[in-house]
Every structure is written in structure tokens, then in C-alpha cells.
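Reopening this one. Same input as before:
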Amino acid sequence: MFPELTRDDVFRIETRRLWLRWPRLEDAEDIAREAGKPEVAEMTARIPVGMRPQDVLHFVTTVREANTEGAQLSLAITLKGRPEHAIGIIAVHDGALALPEFGYWLAQPFWGSGLATEAAQALVDVFFAVTPLEALGASALPYNAASRRVLKKCGFALVGNGLAEAPARGGPQAVDFFRLDRSTWAALKGWREPRFQRQDGSGEAQRRRQMQMAAK
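Same output, byte for byte:
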């Protein structure tokens, strides 16, 4: 799904306040502490309440392997001033409805700050800029107003509802489904330009070429 540019752990996305980088084993304590809180976990399908750092190690290893293969792109959300501390995860991976699926979680202390939207718009921009795929899917619980607002700000449109697998919640749960088409993204992308690169700086020329291709 994702090209060579993203398949190395030196890849990162820069926004005004954030660095989005590959998750690391050292992130396990931060992820377990923040994602395992009921307020966060219960809004997701796969995160158990009260998860432990040792539970996160397998997740980090798995997503790093998938990133390397280009099968998905899962990134830790970090503040620019504290890039060693993960405050969330954002990802695009294979979806259940034949569409790549977008999802994220953000630590509760940062809710209402606009950081979720900032991270989401950045990854959506990169997805359409570096892949040829025509659409991106997402889902949200009907009562998760915050996530629905983030999706709307990214351009996603509600396309239906139904059941989605939620192994950490004990079985399928009712969700609303959203979709963002490339044409809609292209109409909105003038708001911002994604900044993504390898940490050694070697991705900058390729970034410019990819953005030029996406603009055609």
C-alpha cells in the first residue's frame, strides 16, 4: 500500500506542533498508560482497558513489521518539544470494507487541543500524496462526537452504519462508517501542505516529487 519512502523508521511527518514517527519499543510505557485508560480504550475496538507495557511490546513489533512491508503506516503522535514521548497512535491499515482504514487515539490530557485534527489531516494528506489509492475509510461510535468532528474536518463523509468487529469490547459493536475520496481531498488540500521526510533529510526531494504528482 505504502511506497519505499515510508518503509524505514527514519520516516516522519512534521506538523506545526507535532512529529509523527514510527512507534518504538521504548514507547510501551507511555502507550499502555494513556491508551489503557477507560476514557480512551472504550472508544476503540482493539485496545483493552488497563493494558500493560508488556502487552504493548507485541503491538509495536507487529506494526513496525507491517510498516516495513508497506502494508500499513502506523505512527506515534509526539509533541515537537518531546518527541521521545508518545501521546497517541495514528494509522492507515487494511480495512474490513475493502478500503484502507484510518484510525487514531490521543491521550486524554490533549483532548480539545486540536492536536487530533492536526495529526489526522497530516496523515490523510500523506496517504493521498504518496499512494495511488482513490479512497480512505474510517469508522466511529455513534456517540463519539469528538472523533466524528475530526473526520469531518478531514473531509470524510458519513456513508452508512453497521456492525464492526471489536475484540477488546467483547464482540461486534454498532458504528458509523465514513469515506474520503481522492477528489474531495484534492479539493480541500490547498488548506495545507504535508511535510514528511526521512530523519536524515534524504526524503525531501522525493517529497517534492510526490507532491507535484499529487497536484496533477
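So the earlier flakiness isn't reproducible anymore. For the record, The longest strand covers residues 82-94.
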